[in-house]
Amino acid sequence: MHIVHYITRLIVGGAQENTLLTVEDQHHLHGDRVTLITGPGIGPEGSLEPRARNGGIDLRLISASQRAIHPWNDWQSYRELLRLLRSIKPDLIHTHSSKAGIIGRFAAARLKLPCVHTIHGASFHFGQNRLAFQAYQQLERWAARATDRFISVCDAMTDQYVAAGIAPRERFVTVYSGFDVDPFLNPPRSPEIVRAELGLNSDHIVIGKVARLFPLKGHEYVLKSAQAIVDHCPAVRFLFVGDGILRPEFERELEARGLRDHFVFAGLVPPERVPELIHAMDIVVHASVWEGLARVLPQGLIAGKPVVSFDIDGAKEVITTNQTGFLVEPRSAPGLTSALCQLVDDPLLRRRLGETGRAMFTDRFRHQTMTREIREVYASVLANRRP
User: Fold this and answer.
1) How far is 322 from 310, CA to CA, in rounded Å?
2) What CA–CA distances, in Å, run from 330 to 79, 164, 237, 286?
3) Residues 6+ apart with CB under 8 A from 213
4) Does domain 182-361 have CATH number 3.40.50.1980?
5) Alpha-carbon distance values, 118 to 192, 223, 255 (Å)
6) What pLDDT, on a 0 to 100 scale, did the predictor assign at position 14?
7) Do the two domains 2-178+366-385 and 182-361 of this chain adopt the same fold?
């Protein structure tokens, strides 16, 4: 197959890692001709560009491609994408993320290219102003006309798009966002060594969160819960993995509340370090208020850790209360406090939930499974497009 993938930026994030893994598998495992088009991976989130280049991927950059809405830059991105597609002449274009999904599908329509779009997270979501919410819904309806097939990272994304009238249900297929599961089964370094490097000891009960320190990721709800959890069990320590614009604000708040010593900020780390950091945790918490299906949820379970999450989007597809973790009412700090305290108090419960999650989801979230299923979608689209 000859496929072009287009994503707005190649930062360190779930949608970007999903996209790059698909490209790598197509290139290395399936022998496809594949090109990855993206914008500059700059900013505090880190970049996956070096990994793509070092892996021999055909990587093309559109300098105007950026996350923020900017009519002139977006128009330039569209024109440059058209130029690249005319030059590359792929069999199919696969778009990812909200901005690239709109621009890429308009380009596909202009060139009459088969197009697949992955919904990593709904482009219209909680936290947007009303105008942006409605604008994205209308843009999605227009772009849907140029979309041969939608890939959802969870069933919840399909439900939201069908309910919004974007496209009928038969045009959607769920393919869970895969990753390399082996390091989560067997980390490269022992939890004891990793904990020692972070200033954590064997007596500490570590509650960890892996996410960029950005709005909508929900760190503020963990901070609101922290005092009651520490009062309940002073041995608790919180480990935040990731960096971003909100870190100074969080650190000031913790200093003011006398909780700074109970928090460890690991900062921005390479994706290959995430497995050993999750293994250094006793409990994984994910308090995002908007997310398709956060990869850290199955990653935590495959590492054998119980997971606590707000009941949003696709979380319920991997977390069942008292089976693999706890689902909590969205944006409820008291709900987080109650669930986390229950797990802090019961090491046997933590072990049981983690073992159940590992058994249920290890094979489902292998990246090889994801890429095979995505290529089956391509084959179906291309077969239907032939006269």
Assistant:
1) 14
2) 41, 21, 23, 11
3) 219, 240, 242, 243, 244, 245, 246, 247, 250
4) no
5) 39, 33, 41
6) 81
7) yes
CA distances to 169, 181, 239, 283 from 351, in Å = 38, 19, 19, 10
Nearest to 367 by CA among 299, 309, 311: 299
Cβ-Cβ contacts under 8 Å for 299 (sequence gap 6 or more): 179, 184, 210, 274, 275, 278, 365
Position 47, amino acid: S
Residue 367 φ/ψ, nearest 5 degrees: -65, -25
Whole-angstrom distance, CA of residue 339 vs CA of residue 284: 11
Domain residue spans of the chain: 2-178+366-385, 182-361
Does position 71 have pLDDT exceeding 90, yes or no? no
Could you tell me the fold of the domain covering 2-178+366-385?
A: Rossmann fold (3.40.50)
In angstroms, the CA 325 to CA 323 distance is 6
pLDDT at 65: 87
166-205 tens-digit pLDDT: 999 999 999 999 999 999 999 989 999 999 999 999 999 9
SS3 218: coil
Each residue's pLDDT tens digit, 292-322 = 788 999 999 999 999 999 998 889 999 999 9
> Distance (Å, rounded) from C-alpha 292 to C-alpha 172?
15
Burial of 268 (0-12, 13-18, 19+ CB in 10 A): middle
Helix (H, G, I), strand (E, B) or coil at 95: strand
CB 370 within 8 A of CB 178: yes
Model confidence at 41, in pLDDT bands (50, 70, 90)?
confident
Record the pTM. 0.84
Sheet holding 33-39, edge to edge: 58-61, 33-39, 2-9, 92-96, 115-119, 149-152, 172-174
DSSP strand pairing (58-61 vs 92-96): unpaired
Summarize pLDDT for 217-252 with one digit per residue, the tens: 999 999 999 999 999 999 999 999 999 899 999 999
The token pair that represents 197 in the structure block: 């490097």
- Residue 212, sorted as left (phi over 0), alpha (psi -120 to 50) or beta, turns out to be beta
